[in-house]
Amino acid sequence: MEIVTVALIAVVISSVLYLIFRDSGPKGLPPGPKPWPIVGNLLQLGDKPHSQFAELAQTYGDLFTLRMGTQTVVVASTPSAATEILKTHDRILSGRYVFQSFRVKDHVENSIVWSECNDTWKNLRKVCRTELFTQKMIESQAHVRERKAWEMVEFLKKKEGEEVKIVEVIFGTLVNIFGNLIFSQNIFELGDPSSGSVELKEHLWRMLELGNSTNPADYFPIMGRFDLFGQRKEVAECLQGIYDVWGAMLKERKAAKKARGNEGKNDFVEVLLDSGLNDQQINALLMELFGAGTETSASTIEWAITELTKNPKVTAKIGSELLTVVGHSTVKESDIPNLPYLQAFVKETLRLHPPTPLLLPRRALETCQVLNYTIPKECQIMVNAWAIGRDPKTWSNPLAFSPERFLNSSIDFKGNDFELIPFGGGRRICPGVPLATQFISLIVATLVQNFEWDLPNGMNPKDLNMEEKFGLTLQKEPPLYIVPKSRA
Predict the structure, then answer these.
(1) What is the mean pLDDT of each run of 10 residues along the chain (488 residues)?
(2) pLDDT of residue 264
């Protein structure tokens, strides 16, 4: 649903709200564009708010305020502002604004993404940090990711000379990677939409669509209790459908574990069954591993392949580095630390194309002062990672795609350098960063090592459309189609 449509609906439903809230705004907020009655700044925004927020920051500065319906939103657009929010005031600004569509009973409170930073959240983070995403665990499962990457190569070789929607192939590969990391089994076969756990795949796709849709109740929370557009109900149905698929798998694994004792498979489910988490917490964590891990990485890799298509010199440099370091052997994850140009390429892709352009919205737990402005309690805070990655005060020639800028730079995306925050920072940083960067690097290297590719119908790469589709993830619109050709 377009923002303009949402605003018009809100005018009809909530016209009286202006009389209630017009004189009740908090004082000392950062500056911002003047809001209109009732709808605030909604009608001043379009379908690419991350880009429009960046333009507003040029007028209003590091922090600016928007009125989104009845909601006060503060947007941070520079590394210094991000440092204040994600580091200096991280605890006070660590609350999470939960989208109305995802306020499903028993889900939010057991979610590592949406719950507050309470004891349950800390326990979930601890399991991720000390069990799932340890260096030992990641290294022990490298062969799984390498095998799935090679299955992707074999599938694309069968498609040589044909048009391929590359994001679908990447998404399927990532879902199968996670299926094997979590359950030690594939979810579906590449190129066969009727294979595997069809229900799981369909529910995952629908959840992602719902996550990218607009709910008027996010701007006028008084509407939230009614779920007028049925989005929360649909999210609940998708979640239950996913849990039903996993419920059968988990029941089978619990029985098998009981029968064999402590000896079992080296996968995430085995770890989670020993972690002390209850079934609801395991379900929510698995849902977020699948949902966040596949969609964000698939979008990032599609952007990476797009940039390689537009920049053949960059592709040639990665290919030359692979030949020098790996030779004619199949690239493995253990090679990645010895491939500095590939690592620089991944950083440059994440700088220009952060998977979640506005991160996920935070919420002020208490009133505090940030850069001499007042951030009131319950205020929403957005950090524009997209704008920060393109800030001309930080980056030389910021719109140019140049991995070389990272070759002699210590800047990284692990949450300590606020010039580059594609995965967030502070206590809310994505816990799966070590794993995500491994398979992004592996899949890019595998594609470059094994294929050349052209655009359909002889299109010149210089004419490639680089438009973005805004949502929870920053997707390429239209999707990238390539024509693969195996390297000799």
Answers:
(1) 52 48 70 94 92 97 96 97 98 95 90 93 92 89 95 96 95 88 80 62 76 84 88 92 82 81 73 88 88 87 98 98 97 97 98 95 97 97 98 96 96 95 95 90 98 96 93 89 93
(2) 60
Report yes or no on 362 lying in a domain.
Answer: yes
The reported pLDDT for the residue numbered 106 is 87
Q: Can you give the residue range of the structural domain that contains 63?
A: 3-7+51-486
Tokens 């440059």 found at: 348
> Which pTM was predicted?
0.91
| Residue 370 covered by a domain | yes
Count of domains forming the chain: 1
Look up the CATH number of the domain holding residue 292. Answer: 1.10.630.10
Binding residue ranges: 430
In a domain, 17, yes or no: no
Residue 94 lies in a domain: yes
Residues forming the annotated binding site for heme? Answer: 430
